[in-house]
Amino acid sequence: MRPSTIERNTKETKIKLIINLDGTGKSNINTGIAFFDHMLTQISTHGLIDIDLKADGDIEVDSHHTIEDVGICFGMAIKEALGDKKGIKRYGKALIPMDEVLVLCGIDISGRPFAGIDAPFTVSNIGNFETEMVKEFFVALANNAGMSIHSIMLREGNNHHMAEAIFKAFARALMDAVSIDDRFGLPTSKGIL
């Protein structure tokens, strides 16, 4: 089992996040941003990561602080849960259709953060979730997990479908990258990740 608990309290947000990378996809998520909760549930369900998350943020301002800070916490939790990273596959990939939409996601848990998120949304909001926050969430996650995330929209369509496909593709790629294969030891020729 690879659990992690992260708490983050600022003047803008109060967050408690518990994850288990070796879970069954159980989730209890409440950020006050319904569509964001739906997206995080996709990570849990399709990545088989147990997520217990309570986030109180200044959503009366907008969703930015809450979503970015949850991304920070999620990245920190992944990094903590992975520990020394011995035995992980390190790389993960997924090609995910969501009706008319098609997304490709690749992940490298390298210690070097990068988030290239191709998210050509045509609306500014889905519910009370600003669509530009898809990229901001993954940038915060990548920076704090020390991973490289590439998400490429191969076929565009409905904005809800595009966002959901991005989160589902990330979930499947992450599940692949964090899975254990003892043949790898530490999956690097440098001796350190």
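(ticket continues) Second input and output from the same batch:
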Amino acid sequence: MITLLTGKKGSGKTKKLIDLVHEAVEASKGNVVCVEKGDTLTYDVDHSARLVNVESYGIEGFDVLYGFLSGLCAGNYDITDILVDSTLKIGGKDLNDLKAFLAKVKTLTDEANVKITFSISADSADFPAGIAELAEIK
């Protein structure tokens, strides 16, 4: 299952994401991973969740991000939730590339039985057709 937290910059997406991390930690019988660009969430995310700074691993672009998420799932079958902050800063600003990325991630979520949430700094009205079929938009 894929969920998108959408909205313009400053609309509270990161705060919602942090709340979702805490909810996932409480509900999960496995592991929760929070992926961010930079280290701004260090003191906000529950210590029970694994916090990963993609800058430490040179993750840039949607293809590389997909490979990284796949590696997380392959390396730890106990991951139940992955939450990604600042998705467009990591993957790129092209919303058509985002759509192609989400199509691949959908297959990953189905195979690995993991929930992935992405924060997207864009208005959902600007999304290309078909994204709503790939993910729940909030």
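Agent notes: The chain has a mean pLDDT of 90. The chain is about 40% helix and 20% strand. Closing as not reproducible unless the customer responds.
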